[in-house]
Amino acid sequence: MKLGQWIGLIAIVLSLYILWQIREVLLLMFAAVVLATTLNRLAKRFQRLGIRRGFAVLFSVAIFFALIVGFFWLIVPPFARQFQELTYRVPQGFERFNSWLDALRTRIPTQLVSYIPDINSLIQQVQPFVNRVLGNSFAFVSGSLEVVLKVLLVLVLTGMLLANPLAYRKVFVRLFPSFYRQRVEGILDKCEISLGGWVTGALIAMGVVGLMSVVGLSILGVKAALALGVLAGFLNLIPNLGPTMSVLPAMAIALLDDPWKAVAVLILYFFIQQTESNFITPVVMAHQVSLLPAVTLIAQLFFVTFFGFLGLFLALPLTVVAKIWLQEVLIKDVLDKWGNNHTKETEFVMVSESPGVDDNWTAESPDINQERPIDDILQKED
To answer: Model pTM?
Structure first.
């Protein structure tokens, strides 16, 4: 390798290292791009109704913040009440279970008494874990503050991108060579359409899952059915793992009334998940985004491993964008054209008309001293 090639290789390695070090910042920037793209599409819909760009953007942002405030208003108060009730209902449950075990010990043979677990010993074994959790409370608070700062950063970046999206798009396009910039514009258009399709499909699936959860939990008589349904719909944004995360608080609240309700909630969520996976998602997402289930799961494992919870939350839009860039750049522009560099050579012979040429010249009786008219172009292909 020559010196210039070594310098280029070192520059590529250093660039990859820097990108890896700032991967969380890049992920937050991508989250802002997804949010800005969604709000920009909504603003364009308002513009089609005759509303000016500035007011259309304000309406879009107002709707977004109204949804966020409504979500927390529906979720936080009922959950706070229910989990506060859990704090004193769970010890009562332990005491009732302990008394039931004591009664069982008096009715079974003495040889089997040693096999019955002791609740007090179990509590002593769990105590170090509880102390460790309480000792990490400060870390939890600091982590919460970090999450709040990241959310604010995403919102600020989203506002900047919404203010003048074309300017930022031009800056990104200019990072590519001049001969490839028009191609990049087309790829960005496809990414915008695909992200918009994913958002539309995800919102439809969220609404259906949330509605089914609210109706099912209301029929079972579970408390905070509306809050649990909204949470189930929101967590449906995370394929495969979201429904599992949403069933745990629903079962915990159902245990406050009766154990059979917790089992019924588990069956209900299993039915909803099967319906969503086999009917809702194939019908909705087939017209919006085409991703294989195995690719979705592998992408989730990859992004949650390297980027944490935010990577899990953004795994699907990241996969959609990565698929488009790989398909358009690597497959179509590189692999499909590999070895197909034989182009047809075409020879054009153009002859200009000279002054004083006989206008009666014909192709049947050409004069060697005459030049052919300029519109006679002889094209020969090899």
So the answer is: 0.65
∠ CA 238-240-246, rounded to 5°: 65
What is the number of other CB atoms lying within 10 angstroms of the CB of residue 272? 25
Q: Which residue in this structure is represented by tokens 């959609």?
A: 320
Residue 116 CA, distance from chain mean position: 48
The CB-side HSE value for 277 (13 A sphere, CA atoms) comes to 15
- pLDDT (tens digit, 9 = 90+) per residue, 9-47? 888 888 888 888 888 888 889 989 989 988 998 898 899
Q: Using CA atoms, how far apart are residues 352 and 366, in angstroms rounded to an integer? A: 15
Helix axes 23-48, 137-163, angle to 10 degrees: 40
- The string of pLDDT tens digits covering residues 241-281 is 777 778 888 887 887 777 788 889 889 999 988 887 777 66
Q: Are 152 and 158 in contact (CB under 8 A)?
A: no
Mean pLDDT computed over 104-126: 63
CA distance 272 to 201: 17
Distances (CA, A) of 301 to 211, 245, 332: 29, 16, 27
Nearest residue to 272 via CA among 308, 243, 314: 243
- Rounded to whole angstroms, the Cα distance separating 353 from 121 reads 109
Q: How high is the pLDDT of residue 286?
A: 57
Higher-scoring residue by pLDDT: 232, 76: 232
